[in-house]
Inverse folding.
């Protein structure tokens, strides 16, 4: 079983935390993993992506080939669309609906929504609003992860365990809030499938 | 031992620590920075007192590592590819001095220029210096090459180049570790004159290096990092260097590669294995990340050999490889892909909201208007982003320190006033000697040292310039009346414009220092403490 995941967002939005959570869950299940990320110049408010590959067999390339990603997980709606050439025919786009506007020519939000809706398998989630509702506005990335969780070939309990591992250092309260965020995203996704 | 999840850069750091490292020397540079940062925070490295403080630049780092090797200990020096240009004098000569303790020069190349000015291939440098190269194909090999590289270096008494690229440096995978090797004890070089490169000695040492080349080749032939795998279809033989092997294998996930494959992980090239694949196969395809170095050497000037690769258009001449590019070269039909919707706008990197460089540029743009455009020479750092909209504030970015010296040359040519923009860390990296040139001729240039107390772009590492800039400028000979510190804020905008105009009109060297802490470091307690001690906060 192999899962190829593209994570997309803007520098500083927390896609590496999503990657670390999935990666930890994979490693706890003795799966092979390769995860390439972007460091350096592009991190300054630019578009960033991470290729995350999980498999029960050894993985060759650090990069995912065109048209072969099983899922794009985007914490920003326009950024999800940027990586469509990687998505396989039956792949899923799971994306946050809240735009991150730091450029003057950011497209109309409705046009972006229409583009996303034209993709065969998609989930649009207002992760920022849902995170705010549970007073966890910094955990919108984990809400998005929750919404993507049905497509990762990883048991939900294992993702929960990974959340505990990742946030352990920050205390029980932060762990619980992120577990809640994860669950919220998952429940929303289940209504959309 | 359980596998640990590490970036390629971190795997090298862990391999070096486990391989008996006594000190790492480096200046931050993407994609090499994480090697040193890992050693700085590693518990074992701290307990064992492994040196890991940043150096002023790649040359000082290289020289300190040679010094540590002289004293018998295992040293590593790390840099990005263009850093090797800075360290080149010491690097090339270290092949002639040879080593005492094992010395690994780890250089991270950046094909496709994700965070760099060029995509030069560091293997050229090692070939030029005539030393062995190790080039890992994955994170586990990166670990093993750092671990075993010291032994290789001590075996032949020469430094070894460990070459990686961005993709491996910044990709994570599970690593299995080896047992920890104890550090070397201090010892002096066996030959007391080995490191004295007087011509008479250097000539002898150079002959030694030349006669050792055959031994390097024999070692490569037996190396575990070079491997010949047979294939039934002899119409093609594939030579895959380093990371390129993965892109080849990605195209044959569920089957064996039908062609003979020679994996290259150690150079000089293993001659017998190369001969074998040439004799067996009708054509050769060379897959290598970076420049077509192997391809060119196998093809020959007269192109008599049937070698395909980046030179004949089978693969693109520039940029990094990926599974699709390699698949296409192998004749695989590519999947039809969805297009990027037209509405998706570019999102280039930008300076952070609230960054002091921004206020400095807004003031500079206003101040310079009366003198005319095209006279701002900038440097390498976050402030290079001042070249983009909406600032369009700078006219050059060439190499570390070039702002000051280019401004001087332009002023010499009559472009007066000329302005230099350089960051604090870049100034101490390579700006001071240029300032001395300008001072010694009293060149009519205004140098803006945009001081944010850190090496910002690479991830906010310590800046050697902290608390020292005015003293350095005075010491070099800048008139203290023309060293002016300002707080770059919106409130101080008019004052900044006035001062910049005044200094640009001055017929000599001025240094203007807009000084405000990098907002990315505001939660850094160590830095806050240091700034308080220096009365900078």
């Amino acid at each position: 079983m192999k899962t190829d995941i593209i994570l997309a967002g803007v520098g500083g939005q927390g896609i590496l935390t999503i990657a670390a959570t999935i990666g930890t869950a994979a490693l706890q299940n003795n799966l092979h993993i390769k995860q390439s990320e972007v460091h350096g110049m592009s991190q300054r408010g630019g578009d960033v992506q991470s290729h995350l590959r999980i498999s029960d067999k050894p993985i060759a390339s650090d990069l995912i080939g065109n048209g072969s990603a099983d899922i794009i997980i985007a914490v920003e709606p326009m950024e999800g669309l940027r990586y469509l050439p990687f998505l396989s025919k039956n792949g899923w786009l799971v994306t946050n609906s809240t735009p991150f506007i730091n450029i003057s020519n950011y497209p109309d939000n409705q046009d972006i929504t229409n583009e996303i809706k034209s993709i065969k398998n998609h989930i649009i989630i207002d992760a920022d609003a849902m995170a705010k509702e549970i007073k966890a506005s910094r955990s919108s990335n984990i809400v998005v992860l929750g919404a993507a969780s049905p497509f990762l070939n990883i048991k939900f309990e294992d993702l929960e365990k990974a959340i505990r591992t990742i946030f352990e250092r920050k205390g029980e309260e932060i762990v619980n809030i992120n577990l809640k965020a994860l669950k919220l995203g998952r429940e929303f996704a289940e209504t959309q499938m | 031992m359980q596998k640990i999840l590490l970036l390629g850069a971190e795997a090298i750091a862990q391999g070096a620590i486990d391989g008996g490292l006594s000190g790492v020397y480096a200046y931050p540079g993407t994609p090499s920075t994480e090697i040193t940062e890992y050693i700085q925070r590693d518990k074992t490295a701290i307990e064992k007192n492994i040196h890991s403080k940043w150096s002023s630049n790649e040359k000082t780092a290289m020289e300190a590592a040679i010094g540590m090797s002289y004293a018998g200990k295992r040293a590593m020096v790390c840099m990005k590819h263009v850093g090797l240009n800075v360290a080149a004098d010491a690097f090339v000569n270290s092949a002639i001095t040879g080593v005492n303790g094992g010395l690994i020069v780890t250089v991270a190349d950046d094909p496709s220029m994700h965070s760099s000015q060029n995509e030069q291939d560091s293997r050229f440098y090692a070939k030029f210096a005539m030393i062995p190269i190790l080039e890992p194909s994955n994170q586990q090999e990166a670990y093993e090459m750092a671990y075993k590289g010291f032994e290789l270096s001590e075996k032949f008494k020469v430094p070894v180049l460990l070459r990686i690229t961005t993709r491996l440096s910044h990709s994570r995978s599970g690593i299995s570790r080896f047992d920890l090797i104890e550090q070397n004890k201090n010892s002096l070089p066996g030959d007391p004159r080995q490191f004295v490169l007087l011509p008479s000695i250097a000539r002898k040492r150079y002959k030694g290096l030349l006669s050792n080349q055959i031994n390097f080749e024999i070692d490569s032939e037996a190396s575990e990092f070079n491997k010949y795998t047979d294939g039934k279809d002899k119409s093609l033989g594939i030579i895959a260097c380093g990371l390129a092997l993965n892109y080849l294998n990605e195209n044959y996930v569920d089957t064996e590669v039908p062609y003979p494959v020679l994996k290259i992980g150690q150079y000089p090239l293993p001659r017998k294995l190369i001969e074998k694949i040439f004799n067996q196969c009708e054509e050769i395809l060379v897959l290598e990340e970076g420049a077509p170095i192997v391809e060119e050497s196998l093809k020959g000037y007269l192109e008599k050999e049937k070698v395909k690769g980046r030179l004949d258009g089978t693969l693109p001449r520039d940029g990094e490889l990926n599974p699709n590019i390699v698949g296409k070269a192998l004749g695989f039909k590519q999947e039809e892909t969805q297009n990027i919707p037209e509405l998706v706008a570019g999102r280039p990197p930008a300076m952070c909201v609230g960054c002091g460089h921004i206020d400095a540029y807004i003031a500079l743009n206003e101040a310079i208007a009366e003198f005319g455009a095209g006279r701002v020479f900038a440097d390498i750092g976050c402030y290079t982003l001042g070249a983009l909209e909406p600032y369009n504030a700078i006219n050059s970015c060439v190499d570390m320190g070039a702002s000051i010296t280019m401004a001087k040359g332009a002023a010499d040519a009559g472009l007066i006033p000329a302005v230099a923009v350089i960051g604090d860390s870049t100034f101490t990296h390579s700006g001071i000697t240029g300032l001395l040139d300008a001072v010694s001729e009293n060149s009519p240039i205004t140098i803006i040292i945009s001081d944010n107390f850190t090496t910002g772009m690479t991830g906010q590492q310590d800046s050697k310039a902290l608390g020292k800039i005015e003293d350095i400028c005075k010491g070099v000979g800048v008139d203290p009346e023309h060293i002016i510190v300002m707080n770059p804020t919106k409130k101080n905008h008019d004052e900044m414009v006035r001062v910049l105009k005044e200094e640009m009109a001055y017929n000599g060297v001025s240094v203007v220092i807009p000084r405000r802490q990098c907002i990315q470091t505001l939660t850094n307690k160590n830095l806050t403490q240091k700034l308080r001690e220096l009365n900078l906060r």
Q: What stands out?
A: Residues 100 and 113 of chain B are 35 Å apart (CA to CA). Chain B touches chain A through 49 residues (CB under 8 Å). The longest helix of chain B spans residues 199-222. The two ends of chain B are 47 Å apart (CA to CA).
